[in-house]
Backbone:
């Protein structure tokens, strides 16, 4: 089994043949930086000092030509072929709160939420809990490469992981999940991952902003808040942005929670409402509506958000423009 050495940190760890340099490091308790875990963001880049690695995704968008020229690689897409020495920054805040595990899951239920979002529920072969707002990697049989999807449930044991997944145009993994996966089918699972988890020690009220399948981690956070004795009295403002009425989701899930209408508030925002929608609610973009819903007092909230890249970038700009410290912004960057 190859050994990965980080000379600057005076530490090393083992990297099994079926694991990546990043995920093996996280399993070893090291704070290696990352976000998407699927080769898109580039946050997990490292410099190879000695040794040989194999790239699982040679054309990954997270790695530029200038990175390759400097012998940089993506930790989430690199397997060690030999013992290696690497240069990579380690940060305390990236240490896994729950050590991620590789396992398999059996599909036990599917529920349709909208015309293109379904909830897939898996029972894990090896249970592992996760923090509300985190995500796991799903490996779909016959599809190359794992995909990152956020869990929507809350669990202390991790026996089941539930995901609300949007069917993407020409999406191989989501297409296979929607069109081919039957009850009893198995997938590979890995996780949990992500740093956009619920901060239970924050004294602030909570603002959740979601778009598309970004609904999933925000629902997990809302469910956790409603169950936590220390948080259930805090106000939670939940803003869901979508195109039209047929894309609406989330309200019925939140209505099931204690505190809905008193401490938990749902607001839908349609960006492309038509006359047929007969819409009288919030219109426009989710980040602008969220700002107006809280009366511009964005900095008073702990802010969690997930959705398409343009939406998350817009939310981040809006929050910073409204004086919210970056330490109060929680999201994982996906592309």
Residues:
């Amino acid at each position: 089994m190859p050994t990965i050495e980080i000379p600057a940190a005076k530490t090393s760890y083992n990297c099994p043949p079926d694991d990546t340099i990043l995920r093996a490091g996280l399993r070893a308790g090291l704070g290696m930086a990352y976000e998407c875990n699927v080769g898109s963001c580039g946050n997990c880049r490292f410099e190879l000092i000695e040794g040989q690695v194999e790239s699982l995704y040679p054309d990954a968008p997270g790695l530029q030509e200038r990175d390759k020229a400097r012998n940089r690689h993506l930790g989430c897409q690199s397997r060690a072929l030999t013992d290696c020495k690497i240069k990579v920054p380690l940060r305390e805040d990236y240490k896994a709160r729950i050590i991620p595990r590789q396992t398999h899951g059996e599909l036990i239920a599917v529920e349709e939420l909208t015309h293109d979002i379904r909830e897939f529920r898996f029972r894990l072969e090896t249970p592992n809990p996760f923090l509300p707002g985190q995500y796991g990697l799903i490996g779909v049989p016959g599809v190359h490469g794992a995909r990152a999807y956020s869990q929507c449930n809350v669990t202390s044991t991790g026996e089941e992981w539930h995901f609300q997944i949007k069917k993407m145009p020409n999406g191989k993994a989501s297409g296979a999940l929607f069109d081919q996966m039957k009850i009893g089918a198995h997938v590979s699972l890995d996780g949990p991952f992500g740093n956009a988890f619920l901060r239970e020690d924050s004294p602030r009220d909570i603002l959740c902003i979601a778009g598309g399948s970004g609904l999933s981690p925000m629902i997990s956070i809302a469910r956790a808040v409603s169950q936590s004795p220390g948080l259930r009295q805090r106000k939670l403002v939940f803003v869901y942005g979508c195109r039209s009425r047929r894309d609406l989701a989330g309200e019925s899930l939140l209505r099931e929670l204690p505190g809905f209408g008193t401490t938990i508030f749902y607001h839908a925002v349609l960006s492309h409402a038509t006359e047929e929608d007969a819409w009288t609610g919030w219109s426009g973009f989710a980040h602008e509506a969220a700002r107006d819903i809280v009366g511009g007092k964005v900095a008073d909230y702990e802010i969690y958000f997930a959705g398409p890249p343009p939406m998350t970038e817009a939310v981040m700009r809006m929050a910073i423009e409204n004086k919210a410290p970056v330490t109060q912004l929680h999201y994982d960057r996906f592309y």
User: Anything to note?
Assistant: The chain has three domains: 3-94, 101-193, 205-330. The chain has a mean pLDDT of 96. The helical segments are 21-27, 65-69, 172-179, 215-227, 251-255, 286-293, 309-321. The two ends are 32 Å apart (CA to CA).
